[in-house]
Amino acid sequence: MIVITTPTGLIGHQVVDNLMDGGHELRVIARDPSAIPADIRDRLDIFEGSHGDAAVVDAALEGADAVFWLAPPDPRAANVEDAFVGFTRPAAKAFTRHAVTRVVGISALGRGTPWASRAGYVTGSLAMDDLIAASGVAYRALTSPSFMDNIIRQAESIKNQGMFFSPIAGLVPSYATAPALMYVGLLMLSSVSKLHMDDLVDAMSGLVCAVFIVLSANIVTGIMLGFCTLVIGRVIAGEYRKLNVGTVVIAAVLAVFYLGGWAI
After folding, report:
1. Dihedral of the CA atoms 39, 45, 50, 55 (nearest 10)?
2. What mean pLDDT is reported for the chain?
3. How many domains does the chain have?
4. Would you place residue 154 in the very low, low, confident or very high pLDDT band (cuts 50, 70, 90)?
5. What secondary structure does DSSP assign to the chain, as a single string?
6. 124 plus 34 within the same structural domain
7. In which domain, by residue range, is 126 found?
8. In this structure, what CATH number is given to the domain that contains residue 113?
9. What are the distances in angstroms from CA 130 to CA 58, 107, 111, 125, 197?
10. Is 141's pLDDT higher than 70?
């Protein structure tokens, strides 16, 4: 029996999926069992609660052979030691009590460096490692760089494209970008007055562009449809002489990117 903590987290849910594919018997500890996908819920032995709770972890580890351990972020903890060592202490006692043989945990690099004793979360992670190892289990700490739990979001792009994309945009809060987006929207809206309303094709392409930017929540999609509407409209109306090479090329490139599935 393998016990998995944080089964709905970025790392934990992939551990669950991989072990289930391998046919292993799994038990999970989850604060909210309803967050576990319904298609696998019935195949798991689920214990509801926190794996930092002594009673919950003691019950969940009964009969367990191995444990996947991850201490979740706890912004309410009094200090780093409480967040890692304090949280893990009930489990460490249960490892010994139930004779768990193996534990795999998520930790951090830094052991043996001059900064190991004053490195915040890294220091807490290393102290947690020492606590688990002292329980007598065979302990393996996965000490990838600290960005591992974030880079796992990029697993698909790494697998399929051989590269990853840092979510830098996600670091900017929405309240910082909203005013800029509103300003850009007003500037774009002011351009509506420059449309030639007596030219049906011109007006229609501008309208399509504006409407589909809103409906698709994607500026590029709206622009692509606007360009394509202009080109197709001119051809149908027999006004192809009003088109210039640049407009046709842009419309064609955007259309190819969308049809090929390369567009954002």
Report:
1. 160
2. 83
3. 2
4. low
5. -EEEESTTSTTHHHHHHHHHHTT--EEEEES-GGGS-HHHHTTSEEEES-TTSHHHHHHHTTT-SEEEE-PPP-TTSSSHHIIIIIHHHHHHHHHHHTT--EEEEE--S-TTSTTGGG-THHHHHHHHHHHHHTTTSEEEEE---TTHHHHGGGHHHHHHHS-----GGGGS-HHHHHHHHHHHHHHHHHGGGGS-TT-HHHHHHHHHHHHHHHHHT-HHHHHHHHHHHHHHHHHHTT-GGG--HHHHHHHHHHHHHHHTT---
6. yes
7. 2-161
8. 3.40.50.720
9. 20, 11, 11, 9, 74
10. yes
- Name the band, by pLDDT with cuts 50, 70 and 90, for residue 231: very high
pLDDT tens per residue, range 112-138: 888 888 888 888 899 999 999 999 999
CA distances from 46 to 42, 49, 62, 90, 119 (A): 9, 10, 13, 19, 35
Rounded to two decimals, the pTM is: 0.56
DSSP strand pairing (2-5 vs 66-69): parallel
Q: What does R_g of the chain's alpha carbons equal in angstroms?
A: 28
Judge if 183 and 157 occupy the same domain: no
Report whether 233 contacts 204 (CB < 8 A): yes
**Between vectors from CA 110 to CA 104 and to CA 112, what angle results, nearest 5°?**
105
- Are 146 and 187 part of one and the same domain? no
Structure tokens at 126: 């290393």
pLDDT tens digit sequence for 245-264: 998 999 998 888 888 766 55
Query: Per-residue pLDDT averaged across 37-52, rounded?
Result: 89
138-142, strands of its sheet edge to edge: 45-48, 26-30, 2-5, 66-69, 102-106, 138-142
